[in-house]
């Protein structure tokens, strides 16, 4: 898929105030600083469409972008802030959880994973929470430019190995770098395929 237009629509903290759910929507989530906003800029080929920062916690709201006048792309706040919480759900933040549970036009959520790290409990908990709630997702490994090709493959294999203990089938996954633009076409083609299957 070619991105012809990318337009910021609105930011808000409440799923009920999001734009009308009148077109397919794809969201990007992951731990703070994993590279969600950078990836969105890379995919849309815009330098500053989504605001990025070296400090974690830059994105605090649900941000809607309209792409090719046809679908919504959503930049979400990072999870992993609330250290102590009563439920798994509240650990990810109520804004995020309500959005994921209630947004009716949400087709697929991309869960971003930092390729440099060993499988992180918070990411695994999040993925399992998505599964328990029957929410469709795919994985995007980020920052592949920071490791050698061999280490990238080893890191993905290590993550998949852990997932295999909970999942009968492994989720679709992509290797990306916002710096080198690796993986952009693969992610965009996947979005196009998923949208095509809806029509
Ligand atoms: P929050 O909004 O705080 O949740 O963070 P985020 O997940 O949106 O991360 P963001 O895109 O703001 O990037 C965080 C930091 O990682 C920035 O300093 C980016 O420049 C850096 N970064 C993001 N993606 C890549 C990548 O693919 N390669 C490299 N080398 N650095 C990256
Ligand atoms: Mg961000």
From the alpha carbons, calculate the radius of gyration and give it in angstroms.
Answer: 16 Å
End-to-end Cα distance, whole Å, is: 16 Å
The third-level CATH topology is Rossmann fold
Number of domains: 1
Q: Please state the structural category.
A: alpha/beta
Overall pLDDT level: 92
The total of helices stands at: 6
> What is the number of E strands?
7
CATH superfamily name? P-loop containing nucleotide triphosphate hydrolases
- DSSP strand (E) fraction? 15-25%
> How would you write the strand order of the largest sheet?
1-3-4-2-5-6-7
**Global outline:** globular
- Note the run of SSEs as H and E: EEHEEHHEHEHEH
What's the architecture, going by CATH?
3-Layer(aba) Sandwich
Poorly predicted runs are: none
Give the CATH level 1 class: Alpha Beta
> Helix coverage percent of residues?
25-40%
Bound molecules: guanosine-5'-triphosphate, magnesium ion
């Amino acid at each position: 898929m070619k991105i012809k237009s990318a337009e910021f629509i609105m930011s808000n903290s409440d799923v009920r105030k999001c734009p009308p759910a009148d077109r397919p929507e794809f969201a990007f989530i992951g731990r703070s600083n994993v590279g969600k906003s950078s990836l969105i800029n890379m995919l849309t080929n815009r330098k500053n469409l989504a605001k990025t920062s070296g400090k974690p916690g830059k994105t605090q709201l649900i941000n809607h972008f309209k792409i090719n006048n046809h679908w919504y792309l959503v930049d979400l706040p990072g999870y992993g802030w609330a250290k102590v919480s009563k439920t798994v759900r509240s650990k990810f933040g109520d804004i995020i959880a309500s959005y994921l549970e209630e947004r009716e036009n949400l087709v697929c959520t991309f869960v971003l994973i930092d390729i440099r790290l060993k499988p992180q409990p918070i990411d695994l908990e999040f993925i399992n929470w998505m599964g328990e709630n029957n929410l469709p997702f795919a994985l995007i490994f980020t920052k592949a430019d920071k490791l050698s090709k061999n280490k990238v493959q080893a890191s993905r294999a290590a993550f998949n190995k852990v997932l295999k203990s909970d999942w009968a089938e492994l989720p679709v996954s992509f290797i990306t770098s916002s710096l080198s633009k690796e993986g952009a076409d693969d992610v965009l083609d996947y979005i196009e395929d998923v949208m095509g299957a809806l029509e």
